[in-house]
Amino acid sequence: MSARTVAFATLGCRLNQVDSAQLQTALEARGFRTVPVAAPADVVVVNTCTVTARAECSDRQAIRRAARVSPGARLVVTGCWAQTSPGEVAGLAEVDLVVGNADKARLPDLLEGLLAGAPGRVHVSDVAAARAVAVPPLARVGGRSRAFLKVQEGCQHRCAFCIVPRARGRSRSLEPRVVLDHARRLVEAGHVELTLTGVDLGHYGADLLPRTTLAALLRALDALPGLRWLRLSSLLPAYFTEELIEVLTAAPRLAPHLHVPLQSGSDRVLRRMRRPYTARLYRRLVERLAAAIPGLGLGADVIVGFPGEREADFAATRALVEALPFSYLHVFPFSARRGTEAATLGDRVDARTAARRGRELRELGGAKRAAFGARLVGGVQEVLVLETRDRASGDLVGLTGNYVEVVFPGPDARMRTLARVRVTGARGDRTLGEPW
Length: 436
Prior knowledge:
Elements: E1 5-10, H1 14-29, E2 33-34, E3 43-48, H2 53-69, E4 74-79, H3 80-84, H4 86-90, E5 97-99, H5 107-115, E6 122-123, E7 146-150, E8 152-153, H6 164-168, E9 172-173, H7 176-188, E10 193-197, H8 214-222, E11 229-232, H9 242-250, E12 257-259, H10 267-273, H11 279-292, E13 297-304, H12 311-323, E14 328-333, H13 351-376, E15 380-385, E16 396-400, E17 405-408, E18 418-427, E19 430-435
Helix pairs in contact: 8-9, 12-13
């Protein structure tokens, strides 16, 4: 008898990708064989996003697509949309099982019950009541150059535009010993770069007894034999304590790359967004980090068209972005999400104006990316060679410590290894190199 097959459709953020990888590992331990989502399967797991109304549209499309590809499959929906709108999800004719974020660890058992004929289609607990992170299985990430390790879940903040606290609950952290054990096993499996992820990563350790900090965790991880780069996902400005800045500037394995969300350069808009910092604090922090970390790659998220954003507010955002040494930007138009404070605010910005502002910032971000790449030309960079080739040229792609992808020729045998590359050119958003 052949193994039952399972396919995963994962939408949204990096955390969902990590969660799907953990679920894949858990189901394979039960005898399932994973197949691509484009292939027919016995079970399809759709891991959903709900950050915007557009995301929920994508969720619906993914569910319908899975049902068309695998018409006889049992279809399981989990993730943030399943958590915030379980009745709506369960009402879709294609869906057999709904599992909330607080119940993801139970998904293998629930699926086995479903396949055995057990009743009960909706399993969504109150994620706000969750006080700990269930120790996850070590996700199988064979064949990938980089490994992502989720160390924190949930969020303490209540930003006006964000539904994530309702979808993932309050901040809670994985015990340091568990993080270190998982990290050690990932490095031993050949992953020389680890990226720590979390919803509210800077809050790591504040909920644990005894309390600890992200800085303490980074110090411990920095000592792991065989690790080359340790990278962080998004980190709010307010979390950059003196202790953390000291680690970031001194630990040899900390990648010279940070992603610090901005959202707006206007204090008036930041207050309406309920963001826990000011434009001045943000600017002083970024200038300090750039001065202390040579070659720092710096990214930021920016929202345009937030309710009440005037031309003067947008001008302040643009001026701040122009002044700071960003190497890339992620620019998003405001999207009203039902259930958030921002969805109830008046003084909406019309779509055409928001689109124009977004276009201007994306062009500025592109120019900054190109300028950052140009500064690397003539130098030699150590890169982690990724497992996929550049689509346009067919060449290898290497990721630098400061988060620049360098395209260069070479054989498949170089994939998933560290290499030295001389940067030969920068054309738009493409950085080119040659083996060194």
